[in-house]
Amino acid sequence: MNVWLQITDTAGAVLVFLGAAICLLGVIGMVKLPDVLSRSHAATKPQTLGLLLVLAGVALRLRSGMDLATLALIGFFQLMTGPVAAHLVARSAYRTGQIERGELLFDDLDAQLTEPGQEAERPDSGTGRS
């Protein structure tokens, strides 16, 4: 077997292992973190990075054009759908009142969701603006 093939196979195995470890840390964060926004962060950031590392490791192992194109599509769609899903989950949690508004540094949704002429629930909406 060629030395370069052995090196790429080993590098691929290391990337797959690192990606799986990062995904495991994301899952642990989803279980251990206290609120919806923190869990949403743990569900998207490490999972996306972990999946991309796994895909890179698999790409080093497979090496064929069709397989690389398929892996590139998987990575592309993961990068497109992960943040959108996290945003929708966070926005839904905000609308249903599962987020402590007092703990937010900026509350840009308060101004968007409050109807004109209607007062907010509390005078300081947490927007950080004067």
In short:
The protein has four helices and no strands. It has 130 residues and is an all-alpha fold. The termini are far apart.
Q: Can you walk me through this structure?
A:
It is a single chain. The chain has 130 residues and is an all-alpha fold. It contains four helices and no strands. The chain has helices spanning 3-32, 36-62, 65-95, 108-113. Helix 1 runs antiparallel to helix 2 (36-62) and helix 2 packs antiparallel against helix 3.
Lay out the secondary structure.
Blueprint: H1 3-32, H2 36-62, H3 65-95, H4 108-113
Helix pairs in contact: 1-2, 2-3
In helices, the fraction of residues equals: over 70%
In total, the number of strands is 0
* H and E order: HHHH
Q: Structural class per helix/strand content?
A: mainly alpha
Q: Radius of gyration, rounded? A: 21 Å
Largest sheet geometry: none
Low-confidence spans: pLDDT under 50, at least 5 residues?
none
Which geometry do the CA atoms define? elongated
Strand content: under 5%
Mean pLDDT: 83
Q: How many DSSP helices?
A: 4
